Amino acid sequence: MSDASPLSDPRSDPAAAARAALDALLAEYPDDAAMAASMLADFAATSAALAPFAARDKAVIFGSARIAEDSPIYAATRQLAALLAHEGFVVVTGGGPGVMTAGLEGAGAGNAIGIAIQLPFESPARVLQVPVVLQQRFFTRKLALLRKTRAVVVLPAALGRWMRRLKC
């Protein structure tokens, strides 16, 4: 039988265990600790942004940022997002232009959220009254998009196609 206190067991206080692990990482590997801290910041930002939607099912739409507003795919994405929102889903997109903006527009305020990546050559979607959270890392963005998601829609030129090619 161990004489350790219950707080020393990571299962009894996961936040304390995470802080201790981060402190140890920082002491030994400062560059890795900075990366871990930025990942935690990304997770915290998306958790806070998704909190108002916690009771609702989420449907994520993956698709190309290069689809023009006059494209049939753009129109179909807007219609699909509106149907998903009508059925009670929160529509989650990558928060960028093209299909991602179409999904946010179709679902509308109160039914959509974008989770965008900070890129020097691309601006996040600007859909009135729809929140867009910025992420620093593709890894955390992908995890945030898929976390607690009930439905996934993969449209042309979407992340899924590239992930299959890279065998991720």
List keywords for this structure.
alpha/beta, Rossmann fold, 2 domains, 5-stranded parallel β-sheet, 6 helices, elongated, disordered N terminus
What form results from the Cα inertia axes?
A: elongated
The percent of residues in helical segments reads 40-55%
Mean of pLDDT: 83
Please report the total strand number as a whole number: 5
**Residues in β-strands, percent:** 5-15%
Class derived from helix and strand content = alpha/beta
Number of domains: 2
One letter per element, helices H and strands E, the order comes to HHEHEHEEHEH
Largest sheet: 5 strands, parallel
Low-pLDDT residue intervals, each spanning 5 or more residues: 1-7
The CATH architecture of the largest domain would be: 3-Layer(aba) Sandwich
Annotate the secondary structure layout.
Blueprint lengths: L13 H15 L1 H21 L7 E5 L9 H15 L3 E4 L5 H9 L4 E6 L14 E4 L2 H9 L4 E4 L4 H8 L2
Parallel strand pairs: 1-2, 1-5, 2-3, 3-4
Structure description:
This protein has helices spanning about 15-30, 30-50, 70-85, 100-105, 140-145, 160-165, and strands at about 60, 90-95, 110-115, 130-135, 150-155. It has a five-stranded parallel β-sheet with strand order 4-3-2-1-5, with helices on both faces. It is an alpha/beta fold. The protein contains six helices and five strands. The model is unreliable at about 1-5 (pLDDT under 50). It has two domains: about 10-45; about 55-165, Rossmann fold (3-Layer(aba) Sandwich).
